[in-house]
């Protein structure tokens, strides 16, 4: 079966079993690779994926008030929309933050929460708190965000 990179939502690996899991919005594909290794595949595919999905969002200042938003992670830019249907609409209202120098923490794995602090947020004394709607969504977002953070912390050649 052929899968286009634009269809891939996330990619992950389980090295112990030599498994590579590729997820699209409709299904998961599990590949067994004893030759190259799943970690190499993840590093090769991840830059071409576009992680997206519904998350609850709150700031550290208004923690009790959270809103559901549809988020899209492209490269190191995280964009939030009120609804999924707006992502392809020209001129749709959205909020985008750069994660280039962001600190990403798994703040509460039991509550499926991730906190993001950018230099701008830090100066204002706040952070962004994202909460996934399911364990699968949480795993998808933590994989993508942590891979982004690991990728940005490597020294330039």
TrEMBL record:
Residues 48-150 form the PH domain. It comes from Plasmopara viticola. This is Pleckstrin homology domain-containing protein. It comes from the Eukaryota. The lineage of its organism: Eukaryota, Sar, Stramenopiles, Oomycota, Peronosporomycetes.
């Amino acid at each position: 079966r052929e899968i286009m990179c634009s269809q891939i939502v996330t990619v992950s690996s389980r090295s112990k079993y030599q498994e590579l899991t590729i997820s699209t919005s409709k299904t998961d594909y599990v590949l067994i690779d004893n030759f190259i290794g799943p970690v190499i595949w993840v590093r090769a595919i991840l830059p071409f994926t576009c992680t997206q999905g519904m998350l609850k969002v709150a700031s550290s200042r208004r923690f009790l008030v959270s809103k559901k938003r549809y988020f899209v992670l492209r490269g190191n830019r995280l964009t939030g929309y009120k609804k999924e249907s707006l992502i392809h609409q020209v001129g749709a209202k959205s909020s985008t933050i750069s994660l280039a120098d962001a600190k990403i923490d798994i703040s509460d794995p039991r509550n499926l929460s991730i906190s993001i602090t950018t230099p701008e947020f830090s100066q204002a004394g706040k952070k962004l708190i994202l909460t996934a709607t399911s364990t699968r969504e949480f795993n998808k977002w933590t994989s993508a965000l942590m891979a982004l953070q690991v990728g940005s912390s490597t020294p330039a050649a």
